Amino acid sequence: MIQKSPFITTLFLVVMLCYGQNISAQNNSNKTIDSLTAVLNLEKNQEKKLEILNNIVAIAFQSDLNLAKTYARKGVQLSEEFNNKNWQPKFYEMQGRMHANLLELDSASINFDKALKGYTDIDDKKGQATTYFKMGWVHKRQGNIEDALKVDLEALKLMESIDDKLGIAGAYNRISEDLTKQGRHEEAYEYALKIIALCKENNLEVELAYAYTAAGDTQIAMGNSEASFDFYNEALTLAKSLDFSIYDVLNFSNNRANALKRMGNYTEAKIAYEQALTKAESVNYGNAIYVIRANLGEINLLLGHYEDALKYQLQTVATQESEGDASNLTEGYHHLSSIYEKLKNYPLALEFQKKALVMRDSTAKMASDKTMSELMTRFETEKKDQTINAQNMQIAQQERTQILYITIGAILIFSLLGMILSFKNIRKKRQALQVLNAELDTKNKQNELLLKEIHHRVKNNLEMVKSLIALQSAQMEDSATKDAMIASQNRVQSM
Fold it and tell me: What distance in Å separates the CA atoms of residue 320 and residue 137, rounded to the nearest whole number?
């Protein structure tokens, strides 16, 4: 019988208060969904209807996965009815996410495949990457670590191609997790530290919580329980301060309890698991229910509560078998064998020990990281090749730029020479024109002088003619003839 300490009593009161707040928040969430549903029914615009549905799914996801799945399915139907290529893959991705969290992995995969095709058709690289993340999660749950790493690396490439810092951090997180599952803890920890630095540098607080989780995972795998607890605690504190969904908070709470278990604080860990299970069951979060039950089976085994351990472990193994969770079945069978041994049920203990050995042998290939190493080497090689290609392209660009500058310089030099020659030619022509103008001025002056001389001589000649007519008229006695002579004299005078 465990005695309740003041710490446990206080913790219980805090949990009940949080539970009450959660119920209140859920009621508010339901009211908001009802209001949005009413608006949805009245809305005529197709685009706005899909936006409203998207908001309803996001709100429902915080508290009710089945309700969120229902509205996501409605979004799929409407987007197909409206033939809206942008919204179709989004709702398929949402629906797949709900199926995944409810451990309906086959349905999740079908929806993710449709989402990926839709995003590819409209060339939405970020959508493709986020879908790859979710496909990787499903692969990990099914024990296909190699496939998980492939899609996580594809997602990283896509996020790098659009320089999405948040997406890059998310990809690093998942790759760190993949490496941890393969036992490559030092590499995984290096990735986790990169993520933390990247998140802090770019103020990515949401992804920082997952970065702390990745670091905690590597530390707990390396046996550094206290360091893992610190990382998990940072993640949980940050998640609560940023108002993460109840599902994320449950995941972070389970991680923190795992660290407590590894530190030997079994009673505190058991209480934390039980609180998390109660919350997970209240929101029907299948994934958390499964994981926490497995942990409760182990912690009760460590505490010597074998009947409770058996109850939780049987539920866990049943889920693992139904979902084909090969990566965890070996451990599940081993825990059952240990529990039956403690209960002195040796036949069943031997049976499950054999199952554990068979499962371990069938999945032994997953323990080898040869394929994983090849994938990582190929990825790093591709990155180096890309860097080399980028450098070669940069050098080629610089060479082209130099050639361009040389060509422009040559054109400018030739243009300048041409301008100088042209200027000299113009100056020569100008000088020749000035000489010609001077000669013309001289000739003009000579012509003017000659013309004046001619005018003077003509005038003198006319004066002489006038005088002769006057002398002749003076000798005339006939008046008529004399008048005619005088008229002629006047005419000459006029001229």
Answer: 16
315, 338 Cβ separation under 8 angstroms: no
Inter-CA distances, 215 with 245, 291, 300, 401, 458, Å: 21, 20, 27, 46, 125
Identify residue 308 by its one-letter amino acid code.
Answer: D
**Residue 374 structure tokens:** 């090849």
User: What's the longest Cα–Cα distance across the chain?
Assistant: 188
Task: Give the Cα separation of 248 and 255 in Å (integer).
Answer: 11
Which amino acid would we find at residue 426?
A: I
**What's the chain's length in residues?**
495
No. of H helices and E strands in the chain?
20, 0
Query: What are the residue ranges of helices labelled H in 1-64?
Result: 6-42, 46-61
Do the Cβ atoms of 114 and 89 come closer than 8 Å?
Answer: yes
Measured torsion, CA atoms of residues 186, 192, 197, 202, in degrees rounded to the nearest 10: 160
**CA dihedral of 38, 43, 46, 47, whole degrees rounded to 10:** -80
Contact 123, 146 (CB under 8 A): no
- The Cα 420–Cα 423 span in angstroms is 5
Residue 354 near residue 363 (C-beta atoms within 8 A): no
Q: Is 222 exposed, middle or buried (0-12, 13-18, 19+ CB in 10 A)?
A: middle
Confirm if 247 and 283 have CB atoms less than 8 A apart. yes
The mean pLDDT of 358-375, rounded to a whole number, is 57
Q: What does the pLDDT look like over 146-196, one tens digit per residue? A: 888 889 989 999 999 999 988 888 888 888 888 888 788 898 899 889 889
CB distance 139 to 109 below 8 Å: no
Does this model's pTM top 0.85? My answer is no
Judge whether 108 and 100 are in contact, CB under 8 Å: yes
- Provide the 10 A C-beta neighbour count for residue 179: 27
Using alpha carbons only, give the angle 248, 59, 217 rounded to the nearest 5 degrees: 10
Contacts of 339 (CB under 8 A, 6+ apart): 297, 301, 306, 309, 310, 313
Q: How far apart are CA 439 and CA 433, in angstroms?
A: 10
**CA torsion, points 30, 34, 35, 41, in degrees to nearest 10?**
150
Contacts by 394-397, CB closer than 8 A, 24 or more apart: none
The whole-angstrom separation of Cα 233 and Cα 257 is 10
Judge whether 177 and 217 are in contact, CB under 8 Å.
Answer: yes
> Does residue 40 contact residue 60 with C-beta atoms inside 8 Å?
no
* pLDDT band at 380; cut points 50, 70, 90: low
User: If you search the block for the tokens 């398929």, which residue do you land on?
Assistant: 92
Cα–Cα distance list, 37 to 30, 33, 393 (Å): 10, 6, 54
